[in-house]
Every structure is written in structure tokens, then in C-alpha cells.
Amino acid sequence: MSDKPYTTMLNAGIGMIDETKILLDLWKPGMNNGELKQIALQSGAFPQITARRLKNLIAECFRPRYVVGNDKPAKYLKFLKETLSSREFNQLLFLFTCRESAVLYDFVLHEYWVAYSAGKEKISNQDAWEFVNRANQTGRTSQSWSESTLQRVARYLTSSLADFGLLESGQRVVRKILPFRIDSRIVNFLAYDLHFSGLGDNKVLSHPDWGLFGLERNDVLDELKRQALKGWFIVQSAGTASRIGWQHETMEAVVDALTRE
Closest Cα to residue 227, out of 257, 197, 207, 252? Predict the structure, then answer.
């Protein structure tokens, strides 16, 4: 569970997949919010969005999700956008969005995958409301949320999971749970991303980010062993201890290798 307080920032853009792709094309390192907004308005790529709405999308969604950590998420996404499939690209957007939004991160871990593992077929807005209401009552929210805010955040949680392919899409109060499996190139990206963040091998394997894709430590180990056959890793495992030989020396080299896989 994330230590960050739950906020309503997810409300500004939900998954924001199409908008993100356009903004990545327009974005350059060093741009501030105002510069990106002005270029986006001049591009004509957002004819149905007001200037104020676009400002909010950039300030509350695009920048906190992707223009963080020396702009690395945005740089990697911009580089990979034309190489990855839509599903692979959306999985990276899902990862970075969950990292930014603690309420979404925890909802995926503790509600979506729990329901999936229990064999449930659907998740409703009521399920999401109960989750955020418990969070509100136990002090997880950044401030006390009103009933209207609880309902709004609940709707945005289920809508976000629909955008990212975990739940069925459409205007629904009850949504079917869809099969959701991490793609192999995203396995490689995430493993190296965690490795270059300074984590040891065993902490990489047990990191909660894998749980966003329904994976536990042994599942991750199996995935890395499969990718080892393609030359991405050297994996040695005995009992509860594992050692990983990392075949790329920088994340930039990893991203480059992903475009050639």
C-alpha cells in the first residue's frame, strides 16, 4: 500500500491515453506547463478542449505522471511510442499513472486483483465507493472528502481501469473484469526500471509494482527466466534467494533494445 495520501487529481484526466500520445509528440525536455499548453493550442490537435481544460490536463495529469524523475517517463514513452503496440504502450501509461495516483495504485492491488483472484466477474462503482469511503474514514485522503467527491472518485477509478483495459469500457455502473496480462517487453522495462532505481535483485522481484499486473514474486521470477532465454537477463535461483545478471548497463540501452526486439 502506498504511503502517499489519496488525492482527487485522477479526476482531471482519467486514463488520458489519446491526449498523452499527442502531448508526447509536442513535448520537449525543459518545457514548462505554459509552453506546452501554448504549443498544444496552436497545434490544433485539441479542438474540443478549452484552454482551461487543457491547462488542467497538463498540470494535473501529464506532468505529474510523466514529467518526473528528470523527465525519464516522458522521454522513454516518447522514444517507444512508435515501437510498442497499443496494448504495450498503454501498460506503461498504466504503470506511471498508478505510481502517481496512490488511490488508483491501491485500488488495483487491493480491490481489482482481489476480486479477480476470488473469481468475481464484475466490479461496480459501488465497490469503488466502498473502497474510497473506507480510505476517507481512516484518514488516507489528503483531506476529508464530501459524499459527492467520494462518488466522483469512485467513478473515475472504474473509468481509469476501463481506459487501461482492466475493465470493460462504456458508460456503466457495473463493469466486467477483463483478462489483463503483462506483455514481455513491459516485463523487461519494469525489471530494469526497478533495478536502475537502486534496488537489489530480491527487492526487484518482490516490488509491489508487479502487483499492478497481478504478479507475485514467484511469477516475476518465472517471467524473468523466460526473458533470460532471449538474452535479457541471467537468472540464478536457489530457495528464497535469487541473483540476476543484468545484461544492459543503462536504462537508455534497455529502451533502445526494446525498439529492436
Answer: 257
